[in-house]
């Protein structure tokens, strides 16, 4: 037991060191001397960092080591994406604007948490289907053993809504600060482009989910589908447009 506790402590310290190094590298790649540089690769890397940070923090209170390792794998893979897709210079002046920097950090954490919630919801769907023998998984396979090591569905659902509560609060701050302070944050008046519209659609869907959870105790597969629908709108607003511009259209 002592050896197990020592190993767990060393793992937590190692993950904290990874978070620190990854966080510094991300900060320096986004807020550069030339200005604010960003793209879909930085977005995915930041989402992975937020996910790992959440599970690192949550693992001190909940036995979720199997989820922690998944978050660690994603973070390690996505950490290298910005070296392949370096992004584009968005603004040479934004790095010195504290309003913009604060808006960006809050938005990043919000999207990261809600992205993690979407992945968590998909994992819950797989876990639920495996539990009801609706997936063809060999009983002795590694995937079967990994699914068995996951926390119970009730605990997974509690973790899911913890992610959504915090992510939605930050999304609210992000969306409405952008609507109210567009000129200050971005140097231009508010434009109802596809990003703004999809962000608002996502906000209303997440708000509806939490209202249904509060009023009728929404849970299970219906809640999972609702989370994925809301996240799809968020994905189209934030990450999808950058991917299309940089990779498909080859524009900065």
Description:
By secondary structure, the protein is mainly alpha-helical. The chain is 77% helix and 4% strand. The protein contains ten helices and three strands. A hairpin with a 2-residue loop joins strand 1 and strand 2. Helix 1 packs antiparallel against helix 2, helix 2 runs antiparallel to helix 10 and helix 5 packs across helix 10. The longest helix is centred in the middle third of the chain and has 34 residues. The chain is globular and about 55 Å long. It starts with a helix and ends with a helix.
Draw up the topology in text:
Elements: H1 2-30, E1 31-32, E2 35-38, H2 40-58, H3 65-78, H4 81-84, E3 88-91, H5 98-131, H6 142-149, H7 153-180, H8 182-186, H9 194-216, H10 220-248
List keywords for this structure.
single chain, 252 residues, mainly alpha, three-stranded antiparallel sheet, 10 helices, disordered C terminus
Average pLDDT, all residues = 78
Strand order in space, largest sheet: 1-2-3
- Give the total of beta strands: 3
The level of helicity is: over 70%
The largest sheet is: 3 strands, antiparallel
């Amino acid at each position: 037991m002592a050896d197990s506790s020592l190993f767990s402590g060393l793992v937590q310290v190692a993950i904290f060191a990874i978070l620190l190094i990854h966080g510094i590298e991300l900060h320096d790649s986004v807020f550069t001397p030339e200005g604010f540089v960003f793209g879909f690769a930085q977005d995915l890397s930041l989402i992975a960092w937020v996910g790992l940070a959440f599970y690192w923090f949550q693992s001190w209170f909940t036995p979720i080591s199997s989820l922690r390792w998944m978050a660690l794998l994603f973070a390690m893979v996505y950490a290298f994406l910005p070296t392949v897709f370096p992004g584009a210079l968005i603004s040479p002046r934004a790095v010195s604007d504290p309003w913009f920097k604060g808006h960006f950090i809050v938005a990043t954490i919000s999207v990261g948490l809600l992205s993690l919630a979407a992945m968590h919801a998909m994992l819950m769907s797989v876990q639920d289907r495996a539990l009801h023998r609706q997936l063809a998984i060999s009983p002795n396979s590694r995937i079967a053993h990994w699914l068995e090591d996951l926390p119970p569905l009730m605990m997974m659902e509690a973790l899911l809504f913890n992610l959504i509560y915090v992510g939605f609060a930050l999304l609210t701050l992000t969306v409405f600060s952008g609507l109210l302070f567009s000129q200050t944050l971005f140097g231009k008046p508010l434009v109802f482009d596809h990003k703004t519209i999809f962000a608002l659609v996502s906000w209303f869907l997440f708000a509806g989910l939490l209202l249904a959870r509060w009023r009728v105790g929404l849970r299970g597969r219906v809640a999972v589908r609702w989370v994925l629908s809301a996240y799809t709108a968020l994905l189209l607003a934030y990450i999808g447009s950058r991917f299309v511009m940089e990779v498909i259209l080859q524009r900065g």
